[in-house]
Write a structure and sequence with these properties.
The protein contains seven helices and eleven strands. By secondary structure, it is α/β, with parallel strands linked by helices. The radius of gyration is 18 Å and the shape is globular.
């Protein structure tokens, strides 16, 4: 989606309130203060929640409009905000926890983009640290769930309608239309739905190793025919 548009960025939190996925990622952070890197942090909801709990957080996001929303939130002053893509981000710091949430992983449409993001994670991962990210299970009927889906936001002041515009192999393209009191906003997106096996191969190629794979935010085991999510918990390879 075109989150460079401040009007679209302003609606993001209405369409994506803090939910079970954020609680899952919060639970991965140690009880004591630790270094956390959030790649593709969006409007910073998770970053600010982590900072509120005393963690040292860097939020990385390519959209200035999204970062502007993030900087306006409570506890935002405790977070270091960086405008960068996940692939390009570089720091001297190491992190005990690296996360990529909100299905950001699926905006990477090529293996080269995925490998570059995984390399960022690998080089910034502290010893004994963990990486966590998710991708939707391609075996679910996402086109059926999404096409012509509508809902009301902000107490009925804004309507959101999603329309699938294209399906090709691993890719689904869709258009989102928002009707607001001030007019109509539209944005388009294409997401990739790689298989579990392909993601696992890319993780291994990156010098990382899978610790666990969950199928939903309740930490249930992954079931290839029933689980909506593929949630990967990743660590450095043992020979690193």
């Amino acid at each position: 989606m075109d989150y460079q548009d401040p009007n679209i960025a302003a609606i993001y939190d209405l369409a994506n309130p803090m939910a079970q996925d954020a609680e899952f990622y919060l639970s991965l952070a140690a009880q004591e203060s630790c270094n956390v890197l959030d790649l593709g942090c969006g409007t910073g909801t998770l970053c600010c929640a982590l900072a509120e709990r005393g963690h040292r957080v860097i939020g990385v996001e390519p959209s200035m409009a999204m970062l502007a929303v993030a900087r306006s939130k409570p506890f935002a002053e405790r977070v270091e905000w960086v405008q960068s893509s996940a692939q390009a981000y570089r720091s001297q710091r190491q992190f005990e926890l690296i996360v990529m949430t909100g299905h950001v992983f699926q905006v990477f449409l090529t293996d080269a983009e995925v490998l570059a993001a995984l390399e960022t994670m690998r080089r910034h991962l502290a010893e004994h640290g963990r990486i966590a990210f998710e991708s939707r299970n391609r075996q679910m009927s996402w086109v059926g769930k999404w096409n012509a889906k509508s809902r009301m936001l902000s107490g009925g002041q804004i309507s959101e309608t999603l329309t699938v515009t294209g399906v090709a192999e691993e890719f689904i393209s869709f258009r989102t239309l928002y009707r607001t009191p001030d007019g109509i906003l539209t944005t388009s997106s294409t997401l990739r739905f790689p298989s579990r096996e392909h993601i696992e191969a890319l993780i291994g190629h990156s010098g990382l190793a899978i610790r666990e794979t969950f199928g939903d935010w309740n930490a249930s085991p992954f079931d290839p025919t029933r689980s909506p999510e593929m949630i990967f918990i990743v660590e450095g390879a043992k020979n690193e």
